[in-house]
Amino acid sequence: MAYQFETVRLEKGMYNEAGHSFSEVLEKCDPSEHYKGTSLESLDAYQRQLKRFDIKVSGSASDVVSKFFASWESAVLFPEYVARAVRQGMEENDLIPLITAAETRFDGMDYRAVTSAPREEDKVLKFVAEGAAIPQTEIHAKENLVKLHKRGRMLVASYEAIKFQKLDTFSVTLRQIGAYINRMHLQDAIGAIRDGDGNQNPAKVFKVGTGPIGGTAGTLSYEALVDFWNQFDPYTLNTLLVSGDVMSAILKMKEMQSPAAGLDFQGTGKLVTPLGAVLLKSAAVPAGTIIGLDKNYALELIRGTDVLVEYDKLIDRQLERAAITSISGFSKIFPEASMVLELS
Fold this sequence. Notes:
The chain has about 350 residues and is α+β, with helices and mostly antiparallel strands. The radius of gyration is 25 Å and the shape is globular. Helix content is about 30%, strand content about 15%. Strands 1, 6, 11, 12 and 13 form a 5-stranded mixed sheet that branches. The protein contains 11 helices and 14 strands. Among the domains are: about 1-50, no CATH class; about 205-300 and about 335-340, hypothetical protein PF0899 domain (hypothetical protein PF0899 fold, 2-Layer Sandwich), CATH 3.30.2320.10.
């Protein structure tokens, strides 16, 4: 039985169609819905092309890099292989979805977000008498644009050096590149929370031992965490993003020493905090710092582009200094939904 994917004409131009990724262009040429009920139902259009050219990218029986370049058409698939491996690295241990309330796709480098800054009286749900005016919540565009940042790494390797490298092993290096790129985006997210998104909206900073936070400066206590938690009304402190030293301090609290918490941590690696918030550790958070946020209201991720690779160079086997990039930015939605606690 002949399948449509076996006759798709592959060419460089498929990477250059405005508003569509290579995979999306392939799907238009070879829709996956045509394969329902067949042995190929579980594969997407790109994976069917790998099958067409008998290229195995994972497992102990994976092919070498040169298999992509056995023909001109199969070489067209190589940049997408690189992009997918990098994207996989970005998604492994990705903290960004755990601290963002919304994701917006945007084609550009400057994004104008909207915001709402209600006054204290606007936060009260008042009784509305018959015929009386209904209280308003004003939403308006932010004064300054939110700038998106291009983050990336340079792939530096000659084709001769990697052509006999197993694809399964080469993918490990590409996943590491993805992890580095994602770490840079996380730094951007933390910077937007702490310093603001360019619209004079930095996070409110509290210090341990300075009212309204109790405890002793330089030391993290359960008392200080409760006082910090209490600042979030009407929001909910449901996420704690902390530095390594603060993570250690939290895990050593006597409130964390209950048998249930210990068994859960030792058995599953899942952390339980005294406040029930999701506890996340990142080297991008300065030492002695806790970033608390209501994940559902604090931050918007603006994704400018997915993973971009210099497809011309990769297809032509000119791997020396081929750029791999991703563009993202972050906008604060409700500034009061994220705050910072510093130990000293």
